User: What shape does this take?
Amino acid sequence: MERNTVQRQLILAELRKLNNHPTIEEVFTEVKNEHPAISKTTVYRNLRQLAKDGIIRQVALPDGLERYDRIADQHYHFNCMQCGNILDVEYNYLAGIDDAIQKKYRVQVDKHDVVFIGMCQKCKTAKKNVRRKNSGKEVIINT
Assistant: This one.
């Protein structure tokens, strides 16, 4: 574990304010707003180190961008392919699956990530309302 610098604390504080599994760029933008002298390289290096130290999580999602989660515990995610929203999925972490894969394939599994992909409730509702509108029926859309 590396030393806990002032910059690292600033970056961690900004990440904890965000509730959207931000990219490095998004975290950098937030930190830079409060601390204009900080560089993107510093944010990048510190996010990676915080993830390596187990303080935050780096999340692998289909968009290919590095995203970070302020919740460090092992858990799953849902990614809406319509709006891009990422939700934490509260479901028991299947630790036993790591052992099963290790035994079957004779490999070492350190962790696994699962991302459920689909459409969130908000996007499903919006799509349903658009379909109703296009079918000629009167539609009331709550905004």
Observations:
- The two ends are 47 Å apart (CA to CA).
- Residues 74-143 form a domain with the Dna Ligase; domain 1 fold (CATH 3.30.1490.190).
- Helices lie at 6-17, 24-34, 40-52, 96-105, 121-134.
- The chain has five helices and five strands.
